[in-house]
């Protein structure tokens, strides 16, 4: 089916500047209708929900009344002057659905980048409130991504960050980088998970000591990396080991769960991804969230603040220096709370964990032992990725110019499947992955359809690359 002739020039400054990308026409549940180059594509199975955003799927009929009620109730207020009840209720909901005592307060904002920016400022003021202004250094990881604002890019390490390095925060004295946690490529032959974790922890401790612990403010990692690395689960002892080092050297432990959190990868039917790896005793001091919080129906993200940080503020100035215009926006918070209550009521967090793991295991069984370009299938719960390699034994990457990740994305689209292709996972430039992050409403029938279309697309691209002499 084709549409009438449409202008191909885009008025939106994003993507390919002078060309319109595919446009969404409608969505219902797990499926979308998309217009691309004048052609309508029906029944596109959405296996990534934009950028791991969707929880309830598209066109949920219960969300519209939630939105209508929130719009009728809403009167905008500037949060540093007048607050609102929905922001308080959403904060309490998140705190109550996390292990007791882990979080004590929350700040709501409009994007994951903004949440990481705010977390950096909160941590900085925390150090000043308790009389440690010399603690300025932030340690994050190689091959990481925390958002597209300059501050968030400064604590990232990827091709997107490299483009702006000349105007980023000092990478030598302030935003330091520790080795990436990437078992598929860097866990040595014969090395156990615990041994690999210890090797990484030893590297982190050396960085802390070399930089003087009195000047180190924070250690920050993505609990389950997304577009930077491709959903590489942490090996045993890694996150708890970071927590121990932070305790030892009086450093804040921060987790970025913007992409992997808020129910996408929780084993207990709750919200936090880190509960898949560590217990409440090793929980972060501060955590960023976003994506599925509003399920794409509103623009919302947040910062969850632990009691240690909150208490330092109360015992100090008892004030936050500065605010965003749309921070803790009442309309966004009320819609997000309605979305989260529906997810909890219908057990959708437990569903995505079960169905996501089923999807991952079926993809591993279907792809890893076959002669194709998939070197690894990894993830947990509702967040998985495929890594493409030229050689499964050596894990050699494809040449960057072939852009296999995005090419696979296009092949999938032609096979009526929406995925996210990315590059740069291996070293920040080379390496190709595809991300999968379906909606929480996914059924076993949907799982089988995703697996079928993924396998078909892998076989198709593998044959094309072989015919072209690239594989």
Automatic annotation (TrEMBL):
GO molecular function: pyridoxal phosphate binding; transaminase activity
Family recorded in the similarity comment: Belongs to the class-III pyridoxal-phosphate-dependent aminotransferase family.
Pfam families: Aminotran_3
Organism: Lachancea dasiensis
Source organism superkingdom: Eukaryota
Protein name (database record): LADA_0F01024g1_1
InterPro entries cross-referenced by the UniProt entry: Aminotrans_3, PyrdxlP-dep_Trfase, PyrdxlP-dep_Trfase_major, PyrdxlP-dep_Trfase_small
Lineage: Eukaryota, Fungi, Dikarya, Ascomycota, Saccharomycotina
Gene3D superfamilies documented for this protein: Aspartate Aminotransferase, domain 1 (3.90.1150.10), Type I PLP-dependent aspartate aminotransferase-like (Major domain) (3.40.640.10)
Keyword Signal in record: no
Keywords: Pyridoxal phosphate
Gene Ontology cellular component annotations, sorted alphabetically: cytosol
